[in-house]
Amino acid sequence: MTAAVAGLVPFDDAVARYEPVLGLETHVELGTTTKMFCGCPTRFGLPPNSAVCPVCLGLPGSLPVANRAAIEYTIRIGLALNCSIASWCRFARKNYFYPDIPKNFQISQYDEPLCTNGWIDVTVEGETFRVGIERVHLEEDTGKSLHVGGATGRIHGADYSLVDYNRAGIPLVEVVTKPVPGTGALAPVVARAYVTELRDLLRSLQVSDVRMEEGSLRCDVNTSLAPRGAEWGTRTETKNVNSLRSVERAVRFEVERQAAVLDAGRRVVQETRHFHEDSGATTSGRSKEEAQDYRYFPEPDLVPIAPPREWVEEIRASLPELPAARRQRLQSDWNLTDLDMTALANAGAIDLVAATVAAGASPADARKWWLGELARRANESGKDLTALLITPAQVARVSALVATGTLNDKLARQVIDAVLAGEGDPDTVVEARGLAVVSDDTALLEAVDAAIAANPDVAAKIRAGKTAAVGALVGQVMKATKGQADAKRVSELILGRLS
Ligand SMILES: [Zn+2]
């Protein structure tokens, strides 16, 4: 058991001696209005077991019919990922018993996926990695179990369990990468950047709302480690990692853990693992099934999918501007370097900056706020930027208040904090807290004169032409006005008084 392995190997040490290989399996709930094989609605948050019918409950005698929109969405995804689209393929039954799968099997695709052999480029720290896409296939989602009682929400220790079949039968696309070697120390960030890129791509295709927190985008992260120059190691599969940040942490943890296992002369066990948001650790789940355990066979209740070539070409022609092309366009509009743009992309901030610019901020200001103050706050609270309780329009407003001199940077930061704390719009906060810059020269001059009187030595130096000494007096005035003065104006007033 891995529990016997003492501790972890520090990450830098681990990647200096071992080569990580990544693999990502991403499940995406499609945003069709009805389920994959029946007419039930797919809306999130309905009362439990209210969006069900004989088909998605797997009642005897019911027959599935494939959802055309789901097939079209899957082809869109495949084309955007540079895949080949099968001209003929079939659904398969994946047989297993679990309470949240009422038929005792899941309709999926096995050896005949709809889309195969594509790629997507991911850029991290100026380096581009081409991630191969093994397959994109279509299947149905399972229901959802709720384990009541017990501390962890897992079945172990629960008093009883409830099952909600509303999600059962929602169309689900699985995007499986080929193994991704050669990322070295960047493996955790490459994994995160890949999921970010895929999420943005799916969003631009309008095939899913891609909300990780609602489970419409779920990621299984495969990680293996091998000594440099050796054969690939045994992989583990960390299931259902539900945020971008967690993807990065899960890879990092597995690298540190597997390095400790290998250092101890043991073998990494091929198994599924659970990721724990609180600790960032993974723990052992069940040992991994082999494909043969599922007794796959072609689904006899559905006809094969044979998308006509003309239809596929129509879909290809209707693809929107994809994120990579959009990034190039925005980069040139915003006049940013490759490195700046990559930083924005990796922070998941491109849409936020674009929306902030659309709300009136300059590209430079929008970028500064999102990558500076707001990224820092997101980091401190362990959230993604998009989860912060501030809108691009509010950031644009703060930026405008700075540009017009109503706020200085320090006050602007206080306003941002208040907006994040739910105190309302920037203007409301400025008004309620009286945060605006004191621009009334009469009020400022009082503070300027007081500072000059209190520091005759400094004043004398400035009179003698050493204007660099003005900073000390500006500091005094800023302190006296509780930071609510425009430092540049204060400096002008002092120099005016002492000239
Ligand atoms: Zn149904």
Describe it for me?
The chain has 499 residues and is α+β, with helices and mostly antiparallel strands. It is built from 16 helices and 14 strands. The strands form 3 sheets. It has a 9-stranded mixed sheet with strand order 2-5-6-9-1-10-11-12-13. Helix 8 crosses helix 9 and helix 15 (470-480) crosses helix 16. The termini are far apart.
Question: Using only CA atoms, what is the Rg?
Answer: 28 Å
Count, helices: 16
Q: Looking across the biggest beta sheet, what order are the strands in?
A: 2-5-6-9-1-10-11-12-13
Ligands bound here?
A: zinc ion
Report the β-strand fraction as a percent range.
15-25%
What's the helix-strand series? HEHEEEEEEEEHEEHEEEHHHHHHHHHHHH
Number of strands: 14
The biggest beta sheet reads: 9 strands, mixed
Find the structural class using helix and strand composition. Answer: alpha+beta
Sequence-ordered SSE layout with sheet pairings:
Blueprint: H1 11-17, E1 18-29, H2 68-80, E2 84-85, E3 92-95, E4 105-108, E5 115-124, E6 127-140, E7 144-148, E8 160-164, E9 171-177, H3 187-205, E10 217-227, E11 236-241, H4 244-263, E12 271-275, E13 282-287, E14 297-298, H5 309-317, H6 323-334, H7 338-346, H8 350-358, H9 363-380, H10 392-403, H11 409-420, H12 426-433, H13 441-454, H14 456-463, H15 470-480, H16 487-497
Parallel strand pairs: 11-12
Antiparallel strand pairs: 1-9, 1-10, 2-5, 3-4, 3-14, 5-6, 6-9, 7-8, 10-11, 12-13
Helix pairs in contact: 3-4, 8-9, 8-10, 10-11, 13-15, 13-16, 15-16
Bound molecules: zinc ion.
